[in-house]
Amino acid sequence: MKKFEYFGVTADIGFKAYGNDLNEAFENAGLAIFNIISDTNDVEPTKEISFEVTSEDNVSMLYDYLEELLFYHEVEFMLFSEFNVEILDNFSLKATIKGEEINWEKHTRKSEIKAITFHKMEVSQSNPVKLQAIVDL
Predict the structure, then answer these.
(1) Helix axis angle, 58-76 relative to 22-37, nearest 10°?
(2) Which domains does the chain have, with CATH numbers?
(3) What is the pLDDT of residues 93-124, one digit of tens each?
């Protein structure tokens, strides 16, 4: 099973992330957005950040999770390559993400993500679980 794939959207990029369960799909969504920014294979998981998100539904939880990832990327000036997500009750999750500070001499610079959008965002808990989102470049 593939972890994620991209689809074209004018001036944006969309992705679908997959998993055997909701936790794994959210982890692969994190991997998908950081592979838009850089090549996660070159990012060493030397620093760890943990956070929690509580939302009103699964789609909002996906949006809030992706927003937190982008926040830590911008504020901590980091790239992430490992994602551990635990979905809790009542549309909340705990996440631990690992990565390192950005070094554009080491890391491949791809596209800058300006924002996460709600446009066409989906959470499908079929088998496999599928998440879909579009980011503004």
Answers:
(1) 40
(2) 4-136 (3.55.10.10)
(3) 999 999 999 999 999 999 999 999 998 999 99
